[in-house]
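Q: What residues go here?
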């Protein structure tokens, strides 16, 4: 099983970034995919989740209306479009896959997003 995040980098406040997470080794189309983040010195926090069909996504209050998650099951990839970025969005961003049925969870190694002027 492998999840690989990409798309992180340095961005100015108010800017945008698009993260991707490509998965392999499990049935992606039947997994609930989520994004988490962990800022330096802080606990990991949930950011967004998107269900198998991609129609329904849920977001943490801190990112709602600024972040959008989507998925392409044909590419085994989940995306996180981030806009209006703030200093406090600086963190390592991780994707997680949770398979329905056995409830197994798989994590990527993260991609760093730094919001700085």
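A:
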């Amino acid at each position: 099983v492998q999840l690989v995040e990409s798309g992180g980098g340095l961005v100015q406040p108010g800017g945008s970034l698009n993260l991707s997470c490509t998965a392999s080794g499990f049935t992606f189309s039947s997994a609930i995919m989520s994004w988490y983040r962990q800022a330096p010195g802080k606990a990991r926090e949930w950011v967004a989740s998107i269900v198998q069909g991609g129609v329904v996504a849920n977001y943490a209050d801190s990112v709602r209306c600024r972040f959008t998650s989507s998925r392409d099951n044909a590419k085994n990839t989940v995306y996180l479009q981030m806009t209006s970025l703030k200093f406090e969005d600086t963190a390592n961003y991780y994707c997680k896959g949770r398979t329905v049925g056995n409830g197994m969870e798989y994590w990527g190694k993260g991609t760093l997003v730094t919001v700085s002027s």
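A: Context that may help when evaluating the design: The two ends are 37 Å apart (CA to CA). The chain has a mean pLDDT of 96.
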